[in-house]
Design goal:
The chain is mainly α. It contains six helices and no strands. Helices cover 74% and strands 0% of the residues.
Amino acid sequence: MVAMKGVALLYWSPGLKDLLNVREDMEKEEEARRIEAEEEEIETMEIPVAKWYAVVRGWKQARVCEVMEKHGIKAAVEYVDMIYERDTYERKRLDKEKSDIRKWVNESTIEAMKREGVERLLEAV
């Protein structure tokens, strides 16, 4: 995200203030606003790499930014934690599913070998 807060977009051209009889008070107010904007603390959040990978795997980077803009840092951290928990659960579930499939393939292969006789299967190879 890129922000423009505190960046001046308009400038007085030389002699314009004198021509319009603008007082020095305006300059003081502008300077005070600029200093106040610079002093304003910027909130940041740190996301551990494992949690960020979960955000990226779920294509949720933009959504994390939206949550942060609308609801603040605390809500964004909670949202990232929720994404990480879901990702961790889903990865464990998929790993178990893969393990179950491998187990089934091994068992069915052994059964087929017993049924057909190991010698006959080895001859085919």
